[in-house]
Amino acid sequence: MKPNSKEAPAYDDALDEARLKGIANGDRQSFRDLYERYDGLLFTTIEKVLNDREDSQEVLQEVMSSLWRKAHLYHPGRGRPITWLASTARNRAIDRLRSKQRQSRLKSAYTDEMDVNPRGSTGLSGPEAASRRDTCSAVRSAVMELTDVQREAIEKVYFEGLTQQEIADQLGEPLGTVKARIRRGLAKLRKTVEVS
Predict the structure, then answer these.
(1) What is the reported pTM?
(2) What local confidence, expressed as pLDDT, does residue 1 receive?
(3) 175, containing H or E segment
(4) Residue 196: how many CA atoms within 13 Å on its side-chain side?
(5) With contact defined as beta carbons under 8 Å apart, do 150 and 181 qualify?
(6) Do residues 40 and 3 lie in contact, with contact meaning Cβ atoms separated by under 8 Å?
(7) Which of 17, 80, 114, 135 has its CA 20 to 30 A from that of 194?
């Protein structure tokens, strides 16, 4: 689905709230109506953050997919429907941007490491190599002491480059739960590695 280019919609909070309730109850027509009404606005909101049309289209689809699953989370007392939708789109775009920046840093670090120690090179020797082996061993041991859910969350952040929101969506867990797992896991890793 490609964002429509049309004039900005006139906001009708009552109608938008009714559509969100319909979506929460599985009403596909309410979903289509809300999508057609706001896809252009949400796309623009996302593109202002990402400055990349293709990524913006992907994020818009993620936002709409999330809306289908999470429309029940909207509460009229917390703000207007359009504000909730635009905030969701902007936050998802920021998550994507951060994820891309993390991936870029990891790729850069890997490239730098390969420039310093290309495959097949002898690399470090003596005390430095022993120290690095000890550190790697301590980290591996510490990772094995994490709970399965902590290890999974940390692997998704550091090895798959996912944002905390993307992990929460992927696992079907609340964002706070994912953040807590990562925080506790990292604290446990730090404590274990410092002791060894």
Answers:
(1) 0.56
(2) 47
(3) helix 175-195
(4) 18
(5) yes
(6) yes
(7) 114
Using an 8 Å Cβ cutoff, are 56 and 46 in contact? yes
Can you say whether the dihedral through the CA atoms of 101, 62, 174, 81 is positive or negative? Answer: positive
**How many C-beta neighbours within 10 Å does residue 154 have?**
20
How far from chain centre, in Å, is Cα 12? 30
Q: What is the DSSP string of 71-108?
A: GGG--GGG--HHHHHHHHHHHHHHHHHHHHHHHHHHHH
Query: pLDDT tens digits, residue range 130-164?
Result: 777 777 777 777 777 888 888 888 888 877 788 88
Domain boundaries, the chain: 1-116, 126-196
Q: Copy the structure tokens of residue 26.
A: 């599985």
Residue 151 has what pLDDT?
82
C-alpha distances out from residue 12 to 9, 20, 109, 170, 189, Å: 9, 12, 49, 32, 50
Asked if residues 36 and 65 have their Cβ atoms less than 8 Å apart, the reply is no
What is the rounded CA–CA span in Å between residue 87 and residue 160? 25
d(CA 15, CA 3): 21
Q: What percent of the chain has pLDDT over 90?
A: 40
Q: How far apart are CA 74 and CA 81, in angstroms?
A: 8
CATH number of 126-196: 1.10.10.10
Mean of pLDDT over the chain: 83
User: Dihedral sign, CA of 80, 84, 89, 91?
Assistant: positive
